[in-house]
Every structure is written in C-alpha cells, then in structure tokens.
Write a structure and sequence with these properties.
The protein is mainly alpha-helical. The protein has helices at residues 3-23, 31-51, 54-72, 79-107, 114-142, 145-168, 172-179. It has 7 helices and no strands.
Length: 180
C-alpha cells in the first residue's frame, strides 16, 4: 500500500549495512573483536527495530481505508489489517533484513558460515516484526501515533538495555544481580 516506504526500506538497508560494516570492518578474533561484533549486531538489530516503527504510520493511514472497505462490504472485517500486517512483515521487515545480513556478514569476515548469515537474517527480521507489532498494537490501543511511537520506543529502549545487560554479564546470576 505504501510503495515509497518499501522502496526506502529496501534502499536504506544495504546502505546502512555498508555504513555499519565499514565501522566494524575486519575484526580480529580476540576479545576486542568479539566485543565489537556484539556491538555490530546490536546496531543492526536496533536499526531494524527502529525501522519497525514505520508500521505506526501505516496503521494510521490504513485505518480509514480499512473502514471504507469494511463499511462498503468489499472486504470482511479484519481482512485489511491482516493483509497490511503480512505485506508489512514481508516487504518492510524480512526483505530489508535479507539484504542487510549478507553484507554485514561479509564485511565482518563471517560469511564463510552460511548458517550464521541465516541466523542473523532471522534475528534482524524478528526484531523488525516485533517492533512493528509493538508499534501497531500501541496505536490500536491509544489511537494516537505520537503516543504509539513513544510506547514503542520505550519498550525498545528497555529491550536494548536488557540486551546490553546480558552481553555485559559473565553469567546469568550476575545479570540477575545487576537487575536487583
């Protein structure tokens, strides 16, 4: 429904992958290189999670069209929302992640392992889908795009902080001790 947004996502994902890859290019296998790879994956995941917030705008614009379709009897209730969610997930979350993952893996010298690229692609896709779902759900609850974006950003910030806490911890018990 929003071809400009899809084009933007598909164009910016490889560009962002190259920029992130240049920052983290040619990492060694010692501890600093491993820590930098964790930063690389955090930045890539954060990029896709924040990109998922574009779903809020789609929900706002699509609500009026869905109401017209439903009221005129052209579509059964929920069909428009389901179609919008599926198109959003595939075109705006899965495809950009599929474009970003191999570039990142190649630039960080991890492309020799295809399963690592697949796992990276799945994680990036999932981050975008979850973020879009949180934003879309927040909009349906609040019916206000500003509040929906705020709620989604706060949830994402908590997730990023929790992820940083886990990467910082030596063991699960020390992560729990940091929280308490």
């Amino acid at each position: 429904r929003e071809s400009g947004l899809m084009t933007s996502h598909l164009f910016l994902s490889p560009v962002a992958a190259i920029v992130i890859g240049v920052v983290y290019f040619d990492l060694d296998v010692e501890l600093p290189g491993i820590q930098n790879r964790a930063g690389l994956f955090l930045m890539a995941t954060l990029y896709h999670a924040l990109g998922g917030l574009s779903a809020v705008g789609e929900s706002v614009r699509g609500a009026a069209a869905a109401a017209r379709e439903r009221d005129s009897g052209l579509a059964p209730p929920g069909a428009s929302a389901l179609a919008q969610a599926l198109i959003d997930a595939v075109c705006l979350r899965v495809l950009p992640a599929a474009m970003m993952a191999p570039i990142l893996m190649w630039m960080c010298d991890l492309a020799a392992r295809p399963e690592a690229c697949l796992v990276t692609w799945l994680c990036l896709s999932l981050a975008g889908i979850v973020s879009a779902s949180v934003g879309r759900t927040a909009w349906h609850v609040t019916k206000d795009a500003g509040h929906a974006n705020l709620v989604a950003v706060m949830i994402l910030a908590i997730c990023v902080c929790f992820g940083g806490l886990l990467t910082r911890a030596d063991s699960p018990s020390s992560a729990t001790a940091d929280v308490v």
